[in-house]
């Protein structure tokens, strides 16, 4: 078997789902992300995997200047949502109309996977932020089967997952509607699990809430709520190594830093996210209970907007530049940290806390002082050799000129 590693691979799984010979499996790489592996014995060299890959063949069909709205669901829906409650409004509507909804849910042991369902209990599991990359599994295939049967589907995911779905389907189904989040990057499931194991009793965790509102509302700084042994442990985001690493772009997939899909024009029918900076539009719009930004990217997006218009508590059209100002991921990806590679080099050597602390606090174990003035590069090469040796001994090293 040979690995078809592509540094820009998003792990969307379109190639895995489409392969007619079933020669592709999704395997975890050293960083903990899934990537395709090809079995040469099964592969027929049809080239379909390369033809449909959304990274190799990106498609941009939607409006380059989408209409922008600020939206709030009712107070009770928003209380259990990360932002303005747009997703449950749409999801409940599709269930009422006999449709299906696809989204990300927690899986054991504390990983995230995509499912498609017509049950309200599953929709509740899809709600809320989950800051790690979900596994798609056979969700694309199941979605296609449901669409072919004539049932409607609301498919939600990251921009690269929507691009993957579109690439897999290779046609625009009239009964398919897509929703993407404004994405900050997808962290490694391996990193998250290692972080949990090092900071909690993994077997005793009952719930992990990245964005609870119950304690101080929405937009008042990151607060984590981890329910362990029937007790809630509240953690300030600025004290949590995983949260710090996520927001610093330290633990996202390599392709996230140069994402081809987290920009205008967007991939899905509508784009949703937190409306950060809503106070600059109008302070009266922010009741601290959550408000969403919604971009209407095409004609199907307008259909979804009509659903929101009839079921939301508040819906107001606003200039898109007001949303971009405080949420630049609408038009560009979040850059990965310059020392991301160093973090993943050390992922199996030191704890997550120490790994993150070393990099974000600019710490090291030793420093090399070196002269760079020689014309034959001898000093530079000697310094490089010593640095490599020290790193093999698990010592993080910096060089002073």
Features:
401 residues; Alpha-Beta Plaits; 3 domains; 15 helices; disordered N terminus
Describe this protein's structure:
The protein has 3 domains: 2-52, Alpha-Beta Plaits (2-Layer Sandwich); 67-330, no CATH class; 364-401. 31% of the residues lie in helices and 21% in strands. The model is unreliable at 1-5 (pLDDT under 50). It has 401 residues and is of the alpha/beta class. It has helices at 14-18, 48-52, 75-79, 86-96, 120-126, 139-148, 159-169, 189-199, 241-247, 278-281, 299-311, 320-326, 340-345, 352-360, 378-392; strands spanning 2-3, 24-28, 34-38, 67-72, 100-107, 111-117, 153-157, 176-181, 205-209, 223-228, 231-236, 270-274, 292-296, 314-318, 366-369, 397-400. The chain is globular and about 70 Å long. Strands 6-5-7-8-12-13-4-14 form an 8-stranded mixed beta sheet. It starts with a strand and ends with a strand. Helix 4 crosses helix 11 (299-311).
SS content category: alpha/beta
Strand content: 15-25%
- Compute the separation of the termini in Å: 45 Å
Q: Quick one: biggest sheet?
A: 8 strands, mixed
Total of helices: 15
Q: What helical percentage do the residues reach?
A: 25-40%
């Amino acid at each position: 078997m040979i690995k078809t590693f592509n540094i820009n691979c998003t792990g969307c799984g379109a190639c895995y789902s489409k392969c007619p010979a079933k020669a592709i499996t999704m395997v975890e790489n050293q960083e903990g992300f899934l990537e395709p592996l090809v079995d040469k014995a099964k592969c027929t060299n049809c080239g379909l995997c390369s033809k449909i890959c959304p990274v190799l063949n990106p498609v941009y069909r939607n409006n380059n200047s989408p209409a922008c709205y600020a939206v709030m669901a009712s107070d009770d829906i928003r209380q259990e949502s990360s932002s303005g409650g747009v997703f449950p409004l749409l999801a409940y509507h599709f269930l009422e109309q006999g449709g299906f909804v696809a989204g990300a849910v927690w899986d054991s042991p504390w990983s995230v996977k995509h499912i498609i369902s017509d049950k309200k209990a599953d929709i509740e599991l899809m709600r809320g932020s989950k800051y790690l990359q979900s596994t798609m599994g056979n969700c694309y295939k199941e979605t296609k089967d449901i669409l072919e049967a004539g049932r409607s589907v609301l498919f939600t995911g990251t921009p690269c997952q929507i691009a993957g779905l579109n690439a897999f389907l290779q046609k625009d189904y009239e009964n398919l509607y897509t929703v993407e989040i404004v994405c900050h990057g997808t962290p490694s499931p391996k990193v998250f699990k290692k972080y949990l194991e090092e900071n909690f009793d993994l077997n005793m965790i009952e719930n992990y809430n990245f964005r609870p509102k119950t304690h101080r509302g929405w937009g008042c700084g990151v607060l984590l709520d981890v329910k362990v042994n029937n007790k809630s442990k509240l953690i300030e985001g600025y004290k949590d190594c995983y949260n710090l690493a996520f927001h610093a772009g330290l633990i996202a997939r390599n392709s996230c830093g140069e994402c081809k899909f987290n920009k205008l024009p967007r991939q899905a029918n509508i784009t949703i996210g937190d409306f950060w900076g809503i106070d600059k539009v109008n302070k009266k719009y922010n009741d601290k209970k959550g408000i969403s930004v919604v971009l209407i990217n095409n004609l199907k997006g307008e259909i979804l907007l009509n659903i929101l218009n009839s079921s939301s508590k508040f819906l107001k059209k606003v200039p898109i530049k007001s949303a971009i100002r405080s949420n630049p991921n609408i038009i560009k990806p979040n850059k990965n940290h310059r020392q991301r590679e160093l973090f993943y080099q050390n992922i199996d050597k030191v704890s997550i806390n120490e790994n993150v602390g070393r990099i974000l606090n600019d710490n090291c174990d030793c420093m090399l002082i070196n002269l760079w003035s020689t014309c034959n590069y001898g000093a530079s090469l000697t310094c490089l050799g010593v640095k490599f040796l020290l790193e093999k001994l698990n010592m993080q090293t910096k060089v002073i000129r």
